[in-house]
TrEMBL record:
The lineage of its organism: Eukaryota, Metazoa, Ecdysozoa, Arthropoda, Chelicerata. Signal peptide: none annotated. InterPro entries: Transposase_Tc1-like (IPR002492). GO terms for molecular function: DNA binding. GO terms for biological process: DNA integration; DNA transposition. This is HTH_Tnp_Tc3_2 domain-containing protein. It comes from Trichonephila clavipes (Golden silk orbweaver). Residues 52-113 form the Transposase Tc1-like domain.
């Protein structure tokens, strides 16, 4: 579009990007002849998709498995929060076991008798 003579503002409106982004892209293209997207911010991923599926599968097969057991079975150094995040992404939440059934007023009365 720029080589066709379009203005930076017109190109930005057409591709739904800011004028600054279009200008930076055009400058990189004219300077280097290529356009490469910048890598994302944040920490790099420690697991690949296969390991993510393995984490979720272990939790589905045995709901009582702990995060430390999953971590040792996967075989890579990941923190427990990573395992919790993968399980949350799969809509798996931790469940605490019942210690006792909740008592109703009728139960309390029978117990006192």
């Amino acid at each position: 579009m720029k080589t066709a003579g379009w203005s930076t503002r017109r190109v930005a409106g057409q591709v739904d990007r800011s004028e600054c982004a279009v200008r930076n892209c055009w400058e990189q293209w004219t300077r280097e002849g290529i356009h490469a997207e910048k890598t994302g911010s944040g920490a790099t991923r420690k697991t690949v998709r296969r390991e993510d599926r393995r984490i979720v599968r272990q939790a589905l097969v045995d709901p009582t498995v702990t995060r430390s057991t999953i971590r040792s079975d996967v075989g890579i150094a990941i923190v427990p929060q990573t395992i919790s995040r993968h399980l949350a992404e799969a809509n798996l939440k931790s469940k605490s076991p019942f210690r006792a059934l909740p008592s109703t007023p009728e139960h309390r009365q029978l117990r006192l008798q």
